[in-house]
Amino acid sequence: NAGVTQTPKFQVLKTGQSMTLQCAQDMNHNSMYWYRQDPGMGLRLIYYSASEGTTDKGEVPNGYNVSRLNKREFSLRLESAAPSQTSVYFCASSEAQVTSLAKNIQYFGAGTRLSVL
Amino acid sequence: KNEVEQSPQNLTAQEGEFITINCSYSVGISALHWLQQHPGGGIVSLFMLSSGKKKHGRLIATINIQEKHSSLHITASHPRDSAVYICAVKNFGNEKLTFGTGTRLTIIP
Q: I need a surface site. Which of A16, A38, B17, B30 has the fewest CB within 10 A?
């Protein structure tokens, strides 16, 4: 059981280049999330998807787009990378049922370390 | 927006010591999540609780809803407990989490 799988693990981009971070989960979870983690700051939500076909902005969506391709996959795209997007990116998923505390636990991927030069 | 504060930011202790990490938040919540981030970067869930106390092995999490405060305790600490411990709160009415900045714990043999 792989859980949440993110690719790639590391990436270096030049300013203006584009790339897509891939995320897939095999736990049949409804909700998926993209976060970024920067030194001295808590994890911040970029975008999330409550179900297949829906996406919503989080706290820091500017410069990113997402796509919930199906229930398993949720990708994050940087159209024109900027040095301010240098960060560690985490994908997470949860079953997200309001009635069950345990089903709101988020499971995280291993992270993608992105540097934009 | 819910403000989440953790203390201390950094904690160094000797192996075997009892460890306490604190988390305070500003607005009422539906649940609180404790997570552990390993030195390699991976993040795992430890507890999710909405009241009282939960225990798993040497880890104990408590929450006081009235005081808007939670603590994570580690008994008989071990070097393998060295990690960043992150508190996150789930606000009423949505599934989003607001995260604290983490407490970096180092256990010296």
A: A16
